């Protein structure tokens, strides 16, 4: 009887599904977080009777075969890169991307990571960095006596220095896009890494065709839909219970067969 093994694969798949949903719910308030969903594929089939097999001397063939599936497996997790809502913070260093694209961050090991989290700060040297203190690329350093800054929708950073009423342009923020955003690898700390699946990073200027614009004084909220996640959680729980019931039923059938005298 294969039902025990088949149902066990279903229980393991739903356990993974619950793990993914739980992570979505846990990050419902994480800036720039993108929800994920687990995707599944069926396993190989045991062919008992082949489709099209000859059933008579006259050459008649079977219209259908007899195939027994061996269960399910988790194929992967798909990140849903829909736009999150924009929340106003009134912090002049907070920036939200309205549309496609990622900020580029220079990592300590020399590599680059990408993020939708625009919660930026100033370092002791006046450089724009993320919350972990990593430099935002391209590097922008503000003058020592900067009073306030202005960031346009196209990423031009201007500083108001001292008592001057005319701003000084100090740099240009850029964005990066990918052919396959879902193929990026999550690193934690709201950062992603490019992979072979995502394709090479494509530098762009905010406002270019197919690229988002910047909103100063806003942050992008998580795109997690709590109601949808709770619904998916209930469905996963019921599927887990049904697989558990299948194991219980198979066990009862095997017990009944063993008791035959």
Features:
2 domains, single chain, 5-stranded antiparallel sheet, 261 residues, 3-stranded antiparallel sheet, Flagellar_basal_body_rod_CS, alpha+beta, Flagellar basal-body rod protein FlgG
What does this structure look like?
With 261 residues, the protein is of the alpha+beta class. The chain has helices at 3-26, 226-258, and strands at 36-42, 45-49, 66-69, 72-79, 86-88, 95-98, 103-106, 112-115, 121-122, 128-129, 136-137, 146-151, 156-161, 168-172, 175-177, 185-188, 191-193, 202-204, 213-216, 218-220. It is built from 2 helices and 20 strands. It has a 5-stranded antiparallel sheet, with no helix packed on it. The protein has a 3-stranded antiparallel sheet with strand order 12-13-14, with no helix packed on it. Strand 9 and strand 10 form a beta hairpin. The model has no long low-confidence stretch (mean pLDDT 90).
User: What is the 3D shape?
Assistant: elongated
What order do the strands of the largest sheet run in, or round the barrel if closed?
A: 11-7-8-17-16
- State the total count of DSSP E strands: 20
Largest sheet: 5 strands, antiparallel
Q: State the helical fraction.
A: 10-25%
Number of helices: 2
From the alpha-carbon coordinates, what is the Rg to the nearest angstrom? 27 Å
Structural class: alpha+beta
The helix/strand series, from N terminus to C terminus, equals HEEEEEEEEEEEEEEEEEEEEH
Overall pLDDT level:
90
End-to-end gap: 20 Å
What fraction of residues sit in β-strands?
Answer: 25-35%
| Number of structural units classed as domains | 2
Low-confidence stretches are none
């Amino acid at each position: 009887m294969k039902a025990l093994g088949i149902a066990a694969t279903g229980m393991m798949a739903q356990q993974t599904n619950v793990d993914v949903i739980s992570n979505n719910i846990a990050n419902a308030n994480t800036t720039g977080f993108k929800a994920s969903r687990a995707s599944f594929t069926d396993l190989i089939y045991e062919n008992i009777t082949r489709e099209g097999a000859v059933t008579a001397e006259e050459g008649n063939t079977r219209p259908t075969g007899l195939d027994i599936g061996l269960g399910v497996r988790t194929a992967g997790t798909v990140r849903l890169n829909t736009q999150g809502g924009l929340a106003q913070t009134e912090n002049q260093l907070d920036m939200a991307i309205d549309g496609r694209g990622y900020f580029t961050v220079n990592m300590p090991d020399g590599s680059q990571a990408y993020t939708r989290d625009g919660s930026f700060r100033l370092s002791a040297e006046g450089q724009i960095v993320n919350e972990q203190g990593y430099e935002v690329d391209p590097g922008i350093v503000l003058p020592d006596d900067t009073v306030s800054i202005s960031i346009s929708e196209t990423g031009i950073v201007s500083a108001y220095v001292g008592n001057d009423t005319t701003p000084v342009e100090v740099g240009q923020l850029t964005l990066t896009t990918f052919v396959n955003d879902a193929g990026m690898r999550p690193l934690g700390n709201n950062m992603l890494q490019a992979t072979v699946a995502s394709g090479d990073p494509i530098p762009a200027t905010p406002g270019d065709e197919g690229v988002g614009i910047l909103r100063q004084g806003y942050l992008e909220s998580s795109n997690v839909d709590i109601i949808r996640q709770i619904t998916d959680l209930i469905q996963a729980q019921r599927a887990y219970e049904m697989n558990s019931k299948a194991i219980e039923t198979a066990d009862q059938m095997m017990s009944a067969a063993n008791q035959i005298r």
